[in-house]
């Protein structure tokens, strides 16, 4: 195998970074005045999810401070379905790894899988809510609005999904995904979300938007009466900020990391153009990618390697890191057993690349086009083979910062942990 040398590339995105996240939380909360109608001393439940959201600890900490300043007694609860291995302790541990602890936030973190039943939607979907949240004076959601990894629609990942999958805990996540198999997940999320809003416990939600740099770009407090319409508008906006692999076609993409803090599917399928059943190139407008190779697992995944099945090959060290319990649980709860399949795996990067390069229909390996990214959330620094120089040069937002350079394989045939 003699791959084309590497060019190192920086992709330039517009920055919408907020200069002071905590101050923006307070400003937005002052305007929204969600405490209106609550008695001083009331318990307010703040639902927090399990994604790797930038500045999550600052945002949640500012929310806690605002509610306390209004004379309320806020507490935090995990709103994350089956994540954290679907245990109360595991979900609290997920929040702790993001800096959301009782000590850091200045309020209790209460984690339980117990739920209360709230009736059924018009489609007959039984609705449940975290019992601790339901028995508080009111619930505030705190979540990121973005595109969903598994489907495209007007409402994808965000506060509505958190009301369904998150507030429903493991019991709800199982039921909603089962109904989503037949009705479509968007319809389930919308129907369950409307039912929960109608139950009168939700005070509002903090919608977090991130730009292509994975920086906090916008914070908005959505009141109950505007939540659905405004979340649709915010999703349409954030989709215009979505980063991409910036070339139309690649034979092979190398991904350094997959993991739950990066994407609910380990790797964002809309970036690598796969779906959660590992179907090739299902997303219109995304680059056509023939093969995907993954090298490692994000350390904050704690063995949950769901999404590994989207790869064509993985390094054997990644295969060894897979913990079957949380990985299988996540894949089965979301009705996607293919996401937990273990792909071809070899003991070095060189062996994996050699195996895949021979499967893209090119007899000369120097003609194989390769892209190399750190993960599907960070697409600012990339590497491409030099045979793509012409394509790179046609795009003004791409800057070649180094190379051409020979591939930096070690004696063992492995690449560096990060892009050089």
How is the CATH topology of the largest domain named?
Answer: Rossmann fold
Relevant CATH superfamily of the largest domain = LarA, N-terminal domain
> Termini, distance in Å?
21 Å
The average pLDDT value, as a whole number, equals: 94
CATH architecture label name of the largest domain: 3-Layer(aba) Sandwich
Taken in chain order, the helices and strands follow as: EHEHEHHEEEHEHHHEEHEHEEHHEHEEHE
The helix count comes to 14
Query: What's the number of extended β-strand segments?
Result: 16
Characterization of the model:
- The chain is an alpha/beta fold.
- The protein is about 30% helix and about 25% strand.
- The strands form 3 sheets. It has an 8-stranded mixed beta sheet with strand order 13-12-11-10-14-15-1-16. A 6-stranded mixed beta sheet has the order 4-3-2-7-8-9, sandwiched between helices. Strands 5-6 form a two-stranded antiparallel sheet.
- It is globular.
- Helix 7 (about 170-185) packs across helix 8 (about 185-200).
- The chain is built from 14 helices and 16 strands.
- The protein has helices spanning about 20-30, 55-70, 90-95, 100-105, 130-135, 160-165, 170-185, 185-200, 225-240, 270, 315-320, 325-335, 350-355, 390-395; strands at about 5-10, 45-50, 75-80, 110, 115-120, 125-130, 140-145, 200-210, 215-225, 250-260, 290-295, 315, 345, 370-375, 380-385, 400-405.
- The protein folds into 2 domains: about 5-15 and about 245-405, no CATH class; about 20-240, 3-Layer(aba) Sandwich (Rossmann fold).
């Amino acid at each position: 195998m003699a791959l084309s040398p590497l060019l190192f590339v920086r992709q330039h995105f517009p920055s919408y970074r907020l200069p002071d996240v905590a101050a923006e939380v307070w400003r937005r909360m002052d305007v929204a005045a969600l405490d209106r109608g609550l008695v001083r001393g009331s318990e307010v439940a703040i639902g927090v999810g399990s994604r790797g959201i930038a500045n999550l600890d600052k945002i949640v900490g500012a929310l806690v401070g605002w509610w306390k300043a209004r004379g309320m007694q806020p507490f935090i609860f995990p709103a994350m379905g089956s994540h954290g291995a679907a245990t109360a302790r595991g979900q609290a541990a997920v929040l702790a790894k993001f800096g959301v602890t009782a000590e850091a936030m200045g309020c209790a973190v209460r984690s339980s899988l117990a739920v209360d039943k709230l009736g059924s939607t018009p489609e007959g979907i039984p609705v449940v809510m975290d019992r601790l949240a339901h028995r508080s004076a009111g619930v505030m959601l705190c979540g990121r609005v973005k595109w969903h990894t598994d489907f495209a629609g007007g409402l994808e990942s965000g506060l509505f999904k958190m009301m369904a999958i998150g507030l429903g805990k493991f019991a709800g996540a199982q039921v909603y995904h089962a109904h989503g198999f037949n009705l479509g997940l968007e319809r389930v999320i919308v129907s369950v979300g409307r039912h929960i809003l109608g139950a009168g416990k939700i005070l509002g939600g903090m919608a977090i938007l991130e730009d292509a740099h994975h920086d906090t770009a916008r914070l908005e407090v959505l009141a109950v009466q505007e939540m659905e319409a405004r979340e649709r508008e915010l999703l349409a906006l954030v989709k215009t900020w979505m980063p991409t692999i910036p070339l139309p076609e690649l034979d092979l993409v190398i991904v350094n990391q997959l993991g739950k803090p990066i994407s609910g599917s380990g790797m964002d399928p809309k970036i690598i153009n796969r779906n959660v059943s590992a179907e090739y190139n299902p997303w219109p407008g995304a680059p056509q990618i023939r093969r995907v190779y993954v090298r490692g697992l994000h350390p904050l995944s704690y063995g949950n390697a769901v999404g590994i099945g989207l790869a064509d090959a993985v390094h054997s060290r990644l295969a060894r890191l897979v913990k079957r319990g949380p990985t299988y649980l996540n894949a089965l709860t979301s009705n996607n057993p293919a996401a937990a399949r273990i792909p071809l795996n070899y003991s070095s990067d060189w062996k994996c690349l050699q195996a895949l390069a021979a499967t893209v229909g090119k007899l000369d390996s120097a003609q194989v086009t390769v892209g190399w990214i750190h993960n599907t959330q960070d697409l600012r620094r990339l590497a491409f083979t030099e045979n793509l120089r012409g394509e790179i040069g046609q795009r003004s937002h791409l800057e070649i910062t180094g190379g051409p350079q020979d591939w930096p394989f070690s004696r063992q045939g492995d690449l560096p942990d990060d892009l050089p």
